């Protein structure tokens, strides 16, 4: 029907895989600091070494663990070692850490796209893991928006 309807249909096929029972966890402890605009007039720890009076401000991000002040995120706290990020930073970095592999281009006389169910008569793009076939539009949508292969899921 339209782009948003197509997106909703594709999302229905993208469910996260079930967690494996016997996997070793490799977690990174992160903190989500509070941003105060009218906090105490102090220098932030990232500019403390320079002892610059122009960086003494009332606003900043305060570490939830040790209450150290920083002017910009993401940063690793110099006092307690906690990685400080905002939620959007974490969400944007996930797909860069685990990118979807590029689909291989193959020439077939006729195939059906798994994503939109259309008949593809020229170039077909197939996932290297599940070998499902997709048209060019679905390949672009999967790599740029979904970041998950519907055939694998």
TrEMBL record:
GO terms for molecular function: zinc ion binding. PROSITE patterns: ZINC_FINGER_C2H2_1, ZINC_FINGER_C2H2_2. One of its GO terms (biological process) is regulation of transcription by RNA polymerase II. GO terms for cellular component: transcription factor TFIIH core complex; transcription factor TFIIH holo complex. Residues 125-147 form the C2H2-type domain. The keyword Cytoplasm does not apply. Keywords: Metal-binding, Zinc, Zinc-finger. Coiled coil: none annotated. NCBIfam families: ssl1. PANTHER family: GENERAL TRANSCRIPTION FACTOR IIH SUBUNIT 2 (PTHR12695), GENERAL TRANSCRIPTION FACTOR IIH SUBUNIT 2-RELATED (PTHR12695:SF2). This is General transcription factor IIH subunit 2. It comes from Geodia barretti.
